[in-house]
Amino acid sequence: MEPNSSLSSNPIPVFSTFTSPFEDSPRKSDSSSSTRKPLSLWPGMYHSPVTYALWETRSKIFERLLDPLLDAPPQSELLTKTPSQSRMTILYNFSSDYILREQYRDPWNEVRIGKLLEDLDALAGTISVKHCSDDDSTTRPLYLVTASVDRMVLKKPLSVDVDLHISGAVTWVGRSSIEIQLDVTQSSTETAEDADSVALTANFIFVARDYKTGKAAPVNRLTPETEREKLLYEAAETRTLADRDSILLRDTRFENSLICQPQQRNIHGRIFGGFLMHRAFELAFSTAYAFAGMMPSFLEVDRVDFLRPVDVGDFLRFKSCVLYTESENSDQPLINLEVVAHVTRPEFRSSEVSNRFYFTFTVRPEANALNNGRRIRKVVPATEEEARRILEHMDADSLH
Known about the structure:
This protein is 28% helix and 29% strand. The chain has 400 residues and is of the alpha+beta class. It has two domains: 46-241, Hotdog Thioesterase (Thiol Ester Dehydrase, Chain A, Roll); 246-398, Thiol Ester Dehydrase, Chain A, CATH 3.10.129.10.
């Protein structure tokens, strides 16, 4: 994975497509590609251009994964592969494909980041499948899921008028986990250096599960070859050791509930906003206390959103979680929490968000000293929705 080889010699071109998977292919080159795959092999009606391109490129692997032979034996012998064997590159022909450009354009003539995130996950998943494949159709394949996404930083805006590449490969493997690094590159000029064209880098962690048992399954080994591949492997190994001090976001959750009483109403007959903030704060404080394992110290209310009024008699549920932590400053680590209030109607089996509260805590210096400066754990999202919530709140914080 030298800088000059960051783009595969045969990148996968992405084309615009709005066609149904059941219609004739608009780009058929021979009779074998005149029709789409049957309904049973398409999990949903909507596919982005990248998903379409990846399916076309790796159709045999995908078809096997979508209809796995659960009674087939598992892979008996692990293979050893190199990063180059899993490398894949996607090419967005923005400069020549007007319809593709329109599919990715935002109101400011830049690439829609949310849509790009979908594509990054799709490519990382395909790379992980490629690495884990044993090329033996008689064994049952592995089930691969996104476990987490490491820090993503957009280094420069992405124009929708200039061709764009996403390139990636497996950089590290554990027993049942795989790390994939993806680079989004877009040159502002034809003479731009490779390092200058990197607009975004992201690391995805996938975990392997056995299709039949659902338990963790071992994956093929990895042998880095180039100096850059070795450096990336060592960096991933270091992060993995550090991540032993991490926790999944869902494992930080707490919840309580109450029936709103007449004594809690304001002069307009609704539930007093201060009462809602009071209850949300107490839950956030308890969550921070349990998470840190030491007495928290309140720093600030980041934001409160009053989305709908709460009435006397409403069944109110408060749900809290630690969104993310910042521990660069060990003397004052930051714990960022979210509390969401839901008005729930059990008789209708419905629930509606009424308020969102965001708080920041640290830990008392004396408590930290008693715990020998124990490191505050890093919170890792387990789903795309959790990752989106974290990014949105971090972006909002950066504007303040």
